[in-house]
Amino acid sequence: MADKPERWRRAWVIGASSGIGRETALKLAPLCGEVIVSARSAGKLQELESLADNITSIPLDVTDAASVKTAAKKIGVGSNCPDLVLISSGLWKQVRIPGLDPADFKASMDVNFNGVIEVLSAVLPPMADRQSGHVAIFASVAGYRGLPNSAAYSPTKAALINLAESIKPQLDAMGVTISVVNPGFVDTPMTSVNKFPMPFLMEPEEAAEIIVDGLHKRKYEIAFPRRLAWPLKFTRAMPNAVYFWLVRKLVLRK
Ligand SMILES: NC(=O)c1ccc[n+]([C@@H]2O[C@H](COP(=O)([O-])OP(=O)(O)OC[C@H]3O[C@@H](n4cnc5c(N)ncnc54)[C@H](OP(=O)(O)O)[C@@H]3O)[C@@H](O)[C@H]2O)c1
């Protein structure tokens, strides 16, 4: 862990009403002047607000452009932009082929990808003007390659990983830092519905600690746990025939 915690002036955590976002907001509270927490569930955000003096809740829906703009205005993004913005909002829907429902795919893309774009469109211009700031977008190790039953989710996370790669060089030139957070399995409301084995399942507190440490170090990619993230990352370089053979053997076996 970093010896001397850097203090952020204002952090904005979106997707903070549960899971990894909530734990990360709590870890950030002692390290920041102010932590603004957002998601749709106003009641859960208020409960979070009651846990530290410097947490303020501002509900929003990332799939609603007007809602994001209103929240950004309340926060004063234009004149007093948070120096750290975490976009942890996400939706996981397991899909089985062949009965694909387009609504599952649209909902996943709306929250996981387009929702991130809505927030970036609000915070990047003021960060670029000030030539400082740090945004972290939450993708997943599921974005490294397509995974069975994850056809609505994995592509949204692959898109985020690609998005971060696409914009990083220009953000660097503007003095703005971008991180992409790629967790493995973390025990949260999102994964509590899963019936399949989740190797190396972590507690959200541990995930939050790794994330905050990575943010301190201004890491571009914060991927964990290593024993899951690295092998999955390695599959990106694997010939397709080998990858599909492995999926059949390890994931689709009955
Ligand atoms: N848990 C894992 O194993 C895992 C692994 C890899 C990646 N991730 C990623 O990590 C992030 C956090 O996941 P988690 O496990 O902590 O899930 P979670 O507990 O389900 O939290 C998801 C958060 O997103 C918010 N959210 C959902 N839809 C929203 C919307 N339309 N507008 C605003 N906020 C919205 C939820 O709040 P409301 O419902 O109150 O809006 C909640 O705060 C997600 O991006 C997820 O894909 C998780």
Can you walk me through this structure?
This protein has helices spanning 19-28, 42-49, 65-75, 102-130, 154-173, 204-216, 226-234, 240-250; strands spanning 8-14, 32-38, 55-57, 84-87, 134-138, 177-183, 221-224. The chain has 254 residues and is an alpha/beta fold. The mean pLDDT is 95. It has one domain (8-250): NAD(P)-binding Rossmann-like Domain (Rossmann fold, 3-Layer(aba) Sandwich), CATH 3.40.50. The protein binds NADP nicotinamide-adenine-dinucleotide phosphate. NADP nicotinamide-adenine-dinucleotide phosphate is lined by residues 15-21, 39-41, 44, 60-63, 88-92, 111, 115, 138, 140, 183, 185-186, 188-191.
What is the compact description of this entry?
44% of the residues lie in helices and 15% in strands.
What composes the largest sheet? 7 strands, parallel
Please identify which CATH superfamily we are dealing with.
Answer: NAD(P)-binding Rossmann-like Domain
Multimeric state of these chains? single chain
What CATH architecture would you give? Answer: 3-Layer(aba) Sandwich
Number of helices in the DSSP assignment: 8
Q: Whole-number average pLDDT?
A: 95
Which shape, going by the Cα principal axes?
Answer: globular
Tally of distinct domains: 1
Structural class: alpha/beta
Briefly, what CATH class?
Alpha Beta
> How are the strands of the biggest sheet laid out side by side?
3-2-1-4-5-6-7
Bound molecules: NADP nicotinamide-adenine-dinucleotide phosphate
DSSP summary, beta strand count: 7
The helix-strand sequence is: EHEHEHEHEHEHEHH
Low-confidence stretches: none
Please report the distance between the alpha carbons of the first and last residues.
Answer: 41 Å
Helix share, percent: 40-55%
Write the CATH fold name.
Rossmann fold
